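Hi there, hope your week has been kind to you so far. No rush at all, and the record is pasted right below.
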Amino acid sequence: MSFTIQSVQPHGEPTVEIDEYVPVTIQWPGYGRLRQAPQSVVLEVGTSLVEVKTDRDSGEVVELVLVDMGQPEDSDAPLLMAGVMESGVPLMSYAETAQNDSASGIHLHSDGLRVRFGRKRASRAVGTPGAVFGFSDVGLLVELDVRLESTA
């Protein structure tokens, strides 16, 4: 899998739903404006399955679903999210590539989760305080940090 950022669109906070059957669903406001079914890509992330849905017309991320959580790595430490980020939701393109990265996986923290899509470091952060996408220096999606508890 290879998601590449194309641009950033201003948007509000996503809603995060936690469920016993589908562990986590994150939905951005753009989902309600879709004119057709979103493009859906299911990715193996370590021992977990993550579904990424984008608007077919713009590439805007509209929903991310942690379909099945295998064996996450647990940490009692809080999730350290990017300090400086571009506010908004990414518009991304997807390319099918054979990539099996052993560094990918789900990492649970005391207040959120990190989805790692590979071993590269994030050098660009895009999102909102509740959900931050991390992209490599060449624009590839490498992680997603999601706050599951309010800091207020």
The chain has a mean pLDDT of 87. The CA atoms of residues 86 and 126 lie 5 Å apart. The longest strand covers residues 2-9.
